[in-house]
Design goal:
There is one protein chain. Strand 2 and strand 3 form a beta hairpin. The chain is built from 8 helices and 15 strands. The chain is an alpha+beta fold and 277 residues long. The chain starts with a helix and ends with a helix. It has 2 domains: 44 residues, no CATH class; 167 residues, Galactose-binding domain-like (Jelly Rolls), CATH 2.60.120.
Length: 277
């Protein structure tokens, strides 16, 4: 692929002329989706769309570090487009508790941590918590809280995020989803206590960024992304360590009926869209 890319740069292929004229005007060039659409126009465009120089700018600046972190070994002769496609898959790592991928349309890095990758107070006592299978999770299971007095969940992640601003969320649902006669139902029988006091969220990064917020959990039967906070990454060659938590430790009442799926990290520009899911 590298040979093809270098040859095409000096070629008169209409795709290359179009791409170079676009980028020479100070633009970033067509995005991944536009490149794939252009490739459908004819054979010349399709061949040129595989050129390394076209896809190099679409990959994160530290993509090689990302490969080492979440993919491992790749075939030596993969072109940049093939590397991009591989990183766009939900790559599972850290014992199956984490997934990372690139957004296909933008090349932005996204990350998800399963409930099994978090520290949950009381998780080993089945009177309080259970892991239940579900098709509504990327990890095929969620942690379900029956009832507890002291509610606390925390975790941490050390990951080579590319430069940018990111938002961290807990993905939660009040009630337990069930399938009955092919239709989704949500059992809210055990939902209680979340209207008494708000849940407190915190985020702290290794370079001292800190945010805290609180809100009441509501909207039973629907998965919601509860925003914990934002953080900024400046150096792509340094891994960012993040600690995060949510808690409601007022022991004057119990709370229960909560499904905890995961913690997700997305570029902050997706924040409003996640809130609407």
């Amino acid at each position: 692929m590298g040979v093809l890319g270098s040859r095409l740069k000096g070629d008169t292929c209409p795709f290359v002329q179009f791409y170079c004229s676009w980028t020479s005007c100070g633009e970033f060039g067509p995005g991944p989706s536009e490149i794939c659409k252009l490739a459908r126009l004819n054979r010349a465009f399709r061949g040129a769309s595989w050129a390394d120089f076209v896809w190099e700018s679409k990959l994160p600046p530290n993509y090689q570090i990302l490969i080492d972190e979440v993919v491992g070994d790749l075939p030596a002769k993969l072109g940049q487009r093939e590397i991009y496609e591989r990183l766009c898959k939900a790559n599972t790592f850290d014992g199956g508790t984490k997934k990372a991928w690139l957004d296909k349309s933008t090349g932005d890095v996204c990350l998800s941590i399963s409930s099994k990758g978090l520290r949950i107070t009381g998780i080993d006592d089945r009177r309080y918590w259970n892991h239940i299978p579900t098709e509504e999770s990327r990890f095929s299971s969620v942690a379900y809280l029956q009832q507890i007095w002291w509610f606390e969940v925390d975790g941490e992640i050390e990951f080579p995020f590319p430069p940018g601003t990111y938002s961290l969320f807990f993905r939660l649902q009040l009630g337990r989803a069930l399938m009955r006669f092919g239709r989704r139902k949500c059992n809210t029988e055990h939902v209680h206590g979340w209207d008494k006091k708000p849940v407190r969220f915190q985020l702290l990064t290794s370079d001292g960024q800190y945010t805290a917020s609180q809100c009441f959990l509501d909207d039973p039967g629907k998965w919601n992304h509860y925003h914990v906070g934002d953080f900024v990454v400046g150096n792509p060659s340094v891994t960012t360590k993040i600690k995060f938590s949510m808690m409601q430790i007022d022991c004057t009442h119990t709370k229960g009926g909560l499904c905890l799926d995961s913690v997700v990290v997305y570029p902050s520009k997706y924040r409003e869209g996640l809130k609407q899911l």
